Amino acid sequence: MLKWVQRQSFRCSGSRTRDNDKAVVIEGSDPRVATCRGKLQNRRSKLNQEINKELRLRAGAENLFKATTNKKLKETVAVELSFVNSNLQLLKEQLAELNSSVELYQSDR
């Protein structure tokens, strides 16, 4: 069972207002900003779920690796472990990238 993780870039546009209107704008009241924040949180949640799934896969593969005495099966499980570990690394990098974009988004206010 091999699984490839596709990287996605995630960008949100902040709200901009014109001072010509002399309108009072309450920070955080723009629905586009709330939607962006929700999208970021949903993406983080999905990444965390995928990371947890990969961690369970890795734990199972490690248990199988320890339990088996069949050399061919051990080789197959070792390859599977390397794929799971690389997927975990990619997912963690995506989460770190997303977290940094959240920090930039929050510090933009």
Automatic annotation (TrEMBL):
Ranges where the REM-1 domain occurs: 30-104
Pfam families: HR1
InterPro entries, per database record: HR1_rho-bd, HR1_rpt_sf, RHPN1_2
Gene3D superfamilies found in the cross-reference section: HR1 repeat (1.10.287.160)
GO biological process: negative regulation of stress fiber assembly; signal transduction
Coiled coil residues, start to end: 81-108
Keyword terms: Coiled coil
Protein name: REM-1 domain-containing protein
Organism this protein belongs to: Rhynchophorus ferrugineus
